[in-house]
Structures are given as structure tokens and as C-alpha cells.
Design a protein that fits this description.
With about 270 residues, the chain is α/β, with parallel strands linked by helices. The protein folds into 2 domains: about 80 residues; about 150 residues, 3-Layer(aba) Sandwich (Alpha/beta knot). About 45% of the residues lie in helices and about 10% in strands. The chain has 10 helices and 7 strands. Strand 1, helix 6 and strand 2 form a beta-alpha-beta unit. Helix 2 runs antiparallel to helix 4 and helix 6 runs parallel beside helix 10.
Amino acid sequence: MDTFGFTKKKLLALSLESQSRHIIIWLSGFYQKLTTNRVNPASLDLFARQYNEILAWIEMTPFIKPESNHTSVWIEIISDQIHLHRTVADSTARDYDLLKKVQTIDRPFFPSQINFHCHVALDGIRSLFNVGSIFRTCEAAGFESIILGNTLGKEHPNVRKTAMGAHKWVEQEKTDDLAQTLIEKKKKDFKIIGVETLKDACPYNDMSWKKNTIIVFGNEEYGISKHVRQICDTFVYIPMFGKKNSINIANAVSVICFQVAGSLSGKRLCS
């Protein structure tokens, strides 16, 4: 496992915000190893010792190592630790703390009986709020389910918070081996399409979308894992027209899912 790149003296010389930022970067690297199954019990023990040493330097509450070595347990804990340090670094109010909530009432029925038989697969997504937003998007776009590869799901309160109730209507399938799960789906005649900026990828709006499709989205920072990319039948990407070369994953899922829904529903564009 990568060691933390600061001594106690060097870390304490930084501002509180800089301390938290460097700790978050280190925790994120460990999180990535968890999502790609590159840890073992010895590395978990080493991480816990190093992390507690760092926490002692900055006088924060010690990290309690979970009894379980199961990947999903550690993913949730490290995600919470990353959120903790973000909170320490920035205690200012967020937009959703300041704005008045908009009250909306869900429809008592589904507006469309069209079944696209389309699904989203998430490969090691770290942000629970993004996952919740993706549940909401999938429900609105008529997608049946979300396959969660080393990704926390609607059992977590932070996911349910941003799903705004949509998680009740979208099934989830959890797996520690997304590549193998997708192989099994291909045996059932599902086409696997990855969303990735690769040389041979097709613009998403040029793709001829079909039913029985699983669309794979990768980690916010690292993209789709190499072993998962090898399972994909083809790739699409979202063209960028500004200076930034990417958008938030929850936004990317919205762009793709509603393109698929519009294409398969047979709705025509207004003139």
C-alpha cells in the first residue's frame, strides 16, 4: 500500500484545509485499491496503523478498524472518512442547507408502460450522493435496475437522501466482481456498452441504442476498470464543447440515460 507522503512536522506546517486535502488524496488512493480488489488482510492492518498515526498527529478521533475484512464494509468506512475530512476542511453551509426545499408530489402511476430492458452498471463509484442521484435518474428515464460493482447502494442513508424516494422503484444488484457479472449478463443476450473517452468510442448521440443493454460507468477519477473494459462490447463518449474535458458522473448518467429513453420510446423531436 502507498505510504502517506508527509512527516508529522511537514503535515502540521500546512493549513487545516491543506492537511485535509492531502489526507483525502491518500484515502482516495486506498479507496481505489478497494474497488479493484487489490487489498489483503495485511494491507488493511497496515492502513489502519498508518491512518491512526496520521489522526494522532492532527489530534482527531482514532480510526476504529472494522472486524470484517469484507470489501464492501471497508468501502463504506473509507467513503465516510473521506467525507469527514471534507467536512473538517470546509465547514461552510452548502446550497442545500440554505435553499428552501421545493415540495413535489410523485405521480401515483407510471406515465409510460414502455419497457426498455436497459440497466446501468456502476464500477467503483465513490460518492454516495452521486449514486443516489443516479438512482433518481434511472427511475425517471425508465431504466430497470442498477448493477453496483464495489459501490454502495440504497441500503446507505446518504444514497437514499439524494435518490428522493426513487430507490423504491429501481432494483439494485450488488457484486464484488462486476466483470464476471457482466459476462453472465452477456450470456443472456445483453449488450454491454461502456461510457469512456477511448480512441474508438462512438459519440453517444450517434449510437443506435437497442433494448437489452447494460451501460457501464466508471469511477469518478479512474474511469472503468481495465478488467471491466475488456468485457464491454463497445464504447460511447460524451463530446465536450467547453474547456473542461469531463462532467460529473451523475450528470453523465443523465445525458446517456435520457438519450437512450428518447431513442427507444419513439418520441420525435419538436420542429
